[in-house]
Specification:
By secondary structure, this protein is α+β, with helices and mostly antiparallel strands. The protein has four helices and four strands. It is elongated. It is found in: Secreted.
């Protein structure tokens, strides 16, 4: 079954609008999450970005924190043999991924810490999973702050005198 152009145009415009409104760091997180998701052994088909929501981007002295929820849609293409144009299967799996990333403040931002959780959208809404996700994202956001400084030799010196 082929869809007429009148149905594809709004979908294409929606995808373009989502991509146009995102910062480079947000696009990088989306790309990383798709790569992570396709690297899982239980994923056999290619998935495309459906929507991005719940975007939080905060900057502080230690870097930039990005959190987002990425909706995915299964396509007809196998992940081992990706093609240029893969048709989205409307009645198939539509997982959601929560991603939290912390980037440093360099010209080419490096990832200081990250957390992903992908699963069915109803799975991510469960109270226990939501609480764990919030705790993990808070830990990611704290990365790079003063408490995470690496130990360097000589940083702490304790001397003890000889017994008298």
């Amino acid at each position: 079954m082929r869809l007429p152009l009148s149905l594809w145009l709004p979908l294409a415009l929606a995808v373009a609008a989502v991509a146009a409104g995102q910062s480079p760091l947000q696009r990088r997180v989306v790309r990383d999450v798709l790569e992570y998701f396709h690297g899982r052994s239980n994923v056999h088909f290619l998935f495309k970005e459906r929507d991005v929501d719940g975007v939080i981007e905060r900057e502080d002295a230690s870097g930039t924190f990005v959190q987002l929820r990425l909706g995915l849609a299964q396509t007809a293409c196998r992940k081992r043999a990706p093609q240029r144009h893969c048709r989205v299967l409307e009645s198939r799996r539509k997982p959601t991924c929560l991603a939290c990333y912390k980037f440093d403040t360099g010209d080419v931002p490096k990832v200081l810490d990250k957390y992903h959780n992908c699963g069915p959208s109803h799975h991510l809404a469960a109270k226990e999973i939501r609480q764990r996700d919030e705790a993990e994202c808070r830990a990611v956001e704290e990365a790079g702050r003063g408490g995470d400084a690496p130990y360097l030799p000589g940083m702490f010196a304790f001397s003890r005198g000889l017994p008298a």
